[in-house]
Amino acid sequence: MFSEPVTRRRALLAAAAGIAAAPFVASPAHAAVPLIYLDPGHGGSDPGAVGNGLREKDITLDIGLRTRSILTSSWNVAVRMSRTTDVYRSLSYRSSDANAWGAHLFVSIHVNAGGGTGFESYIYPGASSRTHRLQDDVHAAVLANMRTISSITDRGQKTANFHVLRETAMSAVLTENLFIDRTYDANLLSRSDFRQATARGHARGIARFLGLI
Ligand SMILES: [Zn+2]
Q: Is 176 assigned a catalytic role?
């Protein structure tokens, strides 16, 4: 659950202050709201992968904004994004911003390239069981929602030493949403109903992870 780290921190603070088993600690009202960080890959001078007339940075931003919209209109959650427009953000900006905000979970949105097809997701090697659960929930929900539109290859749940997975202090998952250089995949990515379904998958996976559905 998203509240576990906060509870642990409170317990440590209470112990440090010499307070034995303090049941309640005053906290801001927003502390109970899940803090969700969405990270649309690339942007600005960095287009990411390109192919079939599409740019990765545009697809990731569109899916990210749609995901935020679904999340905030459906549940009592707070969403922060590494970017909401076509601007460049360094990798260290993305991880530092999420850490400074105190996000409970981090989801980075990308589009693949290199000749394959389908959907895959990544977490950091040796990640916690909580992070594995985040990947399980997001992976399954994205695939299921993509498949309401068309047949999609499941490339699997993977691990990788990516900056945003390694340097974020909270559970983090990175999604690779089809291949921009594969005609079948690009045709889907160019459709707003497919991007909406992909966003719905991200939102519902996050909500499932948080116990909201
Ligand atoms: Zn990317």
A: yes
Q: Are residues 24 and 39 in the same domain?
A: no
**23 is in which domain, residue-wise?**
1-32
DSSP-derived letter for residue 155 is E
How many structural domains are present in the chain? 2
Same domain, yes or no: 78 and 133: yes
Distance 41 CA to ligand 1 centre (A): 5
pLDDT tens across 17-71, in order?
434 444 444 445 555 899 999 999 999 999 999 999 999 999 999 999 999 999 9
Summarize pLDDT for 69-115 with one digit per residue, the tens: 999 999 999 999 999 999 999 999 999 999 999 999 999 999 999 99
Cα(67) to ligand 1 centroid in Å equals 17
Helices 192-209 and 129-146, packing angle to 10 deg: 150
- Tell me: do 105 and 193 sit in the same domain: yes
147, 204 contact by CB (below 8 A): no
